[in-house]
Amino acid sequence: MELTEARQKFIEAWGKLGSEWGINRTMAQVHALLLISPEALTTEEIMESLSISRGNANMTVRDLINWGLVEKQHKPGERKEYFFADKDVWNIARQVAKERRKRELDPVIKILDELSKVQGDAKDPAFKTFNKSVTDINKLAKNVDKTLETMIKADENWFWGSVLKIFK
After folding, report:
1. CA-to-CA separations, 157 to 67, 91, 145, 147, in angstroms, rounded
2. Distance between CA 77 and CA 44 in Å, rounded?
3. Same domain assignment for residues 75 and 56
4. Do 125 and 81 share a structural domain?
5. Same-domain check for residues 7 and 58
6. How many structural domains are present in the chain?
7. Is there a contact between 34 and 83 (Cβ–Cβ < 8 Å)?
8. Contacts of 93-101 spanning 24+ positions with Cβ under 8 A
9. Whether residues 120 and 77 fall in one domain
């Protein structure tokens, strides 16, 4: 397999993986393109490489910047904007974890905390079942939150060393 074919295969695979994780396929493909590009790319280069419209490219790059996965760069003497993705996979994983935590886990924990305060008759089977379910899910969500917090703050070697100790 030649590099051109391998690059295309990687971009397609990253896009498919992203869509399975609930991320827009095009967003994942643009990220993949920037991830494997040695130099920062312009919107036009992204459009041409992925055969997407200017509007789609602009919106997708903006989303990637909002996720903290892509940076905008300016080159002296040029009016065009260039976009560059961090190549450090650990940084990418931590940034994705941080964003997913903020967008998905934090709102769920807020609701579960509120639901945990529901008053009811401790003898009522419906209340007992509801209360136990909410309490258990809340406990799990908070443990996941603590794990993500540890991952976000941790050095890669320390984190994986700690995880591997669990399985020994």
Report:
1. 24, 13, 20, 15
2. 18
3. yes
4. no
5. yes
6. 2
7. yes
8. 93/151, 94/151, 94/152, 95/67, 95/68, 95/69, 96/67, 96/69, 97/148, 97/151, 97/152, 98/68, 98/148, 98/152, 99/67, 99/68, 101/145, 101/148, 101/149, 101/152
9. no
Both 20 and 78 in one domain: the answer is yes
Domain boundary among 25, 53, 85: 85
Run of H or E residues at 72: strand 70-74
Least confident of 55-64, 79-88, 90-99: 90-99
Give the structural domain span for 148.
89-166
**What's the pLDDT tens digit per position in 9-40?**
999 999 998 888 778 999 999 999 999 999 99
Distance CA(118)–CA(128), nearest Å, equals 11
pLDDT, residue 135, reads 94
Put simply, whether the predicted model's pTM sits higher than 0.85 gets the answer no
Tell me the pLDDT band of 158, cut-offs 50, 70 and 90: confident
Last-in-domain residue among 51, 70, 85: 85
